[in-house]
């Protein structure tokens, strides 16, 4: 078959969708090295990924080249369908929810990660964003098949967009294989030295986006310190990572300002953006990882921490219980007191931390890019069967 892939996010490999796209394509290269299918990768910029000859790169831009929503709409809604038609693709796989609508000659499979703009209207704070959201929702409705990355996303698609359940397949994501490799002592020491850290801190990462709830982490940590002060106990420092973009407030939490306002400066280390290769060491040296996100389509940071064997505290809302199962402790992300209580319990109970670390590593191995890719290709087989029947 001739299979097209919207691989636009290869140019943003540090993002969640960028990671999904990168590992999906690498899995395809490994699984279909024999050339039984032809693949067409549609991108806005050329990729550095090495590809065999039956993987064809189509890199193109509209006349409007600024990287904004105007370019995004022109590329997804108009140029991409034209290129797919010219390449006579039997199947098109969109790696994220987009405004793309294709002819019925091509089976269109769209991966939907979340419905954040619907659930958090603050993210659509101008007409351009609202217009793009409407176009994306039309794209989702028009797709032949939808792949939801969690049951939570599946429920949101049915409840909010009225997508028929029979049109949806759930396929869980995985993470970068570097998180499954044991962190060496030398590498660990180098990373800790780079960030001026010592082992045994509380770690919260995954971004400063408002819905990631760094505000809740800071308030819970403040309560924990206050309780420890009265009990004459000692609380480890808190380490935060994620790109700092205070100009985007309130969509992004200004953690530097909040730490100053809460008088937590001596106790909180703010790292800013951390390269992917440093994350395994940061997880591995934490006493636990806390992630009380208000909403996730999946929750890669939780799975990353689990794979390293770091105990995790996560939100009991959205998709995170699907990822963590019984290997994670859960908190109410809307209650700073509940976050503080769960953190305090885990700090006091080393045996519980040991149990969670073991369970986490075992559960993390259930998620794989092979399984994710296999589910999507089971859908593409429907197109092949129809063609053979004709």
Structure in words:
The chain has 390 residues and is an alpha/beta fold. It folds into two domains: 2-174 and 368-389, Glycogen Phosphorylase B (Rossmann fold), CATH 3.40.50; 177-364, Glycogen Phosphorylase B (Rossmann fold, 3-Layer(aba) Sandwich). Helices cover 43% and strands 14% of the residues. The chain has helices spanning 16-31, 69-86, 116-119, 127-142, 151-161, 185-194, 214-230, 255-261, 279-284, 300-308, 320-324, 336-348, 350-364, 369-389, and strands at residues 2-6, 38-43, 55-59, 91-94, 107-112, 145-148, 168-170, 201-204, 238-240, 268-270, 286-291, 312-315, 329-331. The strands form two sheets. The chain has a seven-stranded parallel beta sheet, sandwiched between helices. A six-stranded parallel beta sheet has the order 10-9-8-11-12-13, sandwiched between helices. β11 (286-291), α10 (300-308) and β12 form a beta-alpha-beta unit. α1 (16-31) packs across α14 (369-389), α7 packs across α12 and α10 (300-308) packs across α13 (350-364). The longest helix has 21 residues, at 369-389. The chain is globular, with a radius of gyration of 22 Å.
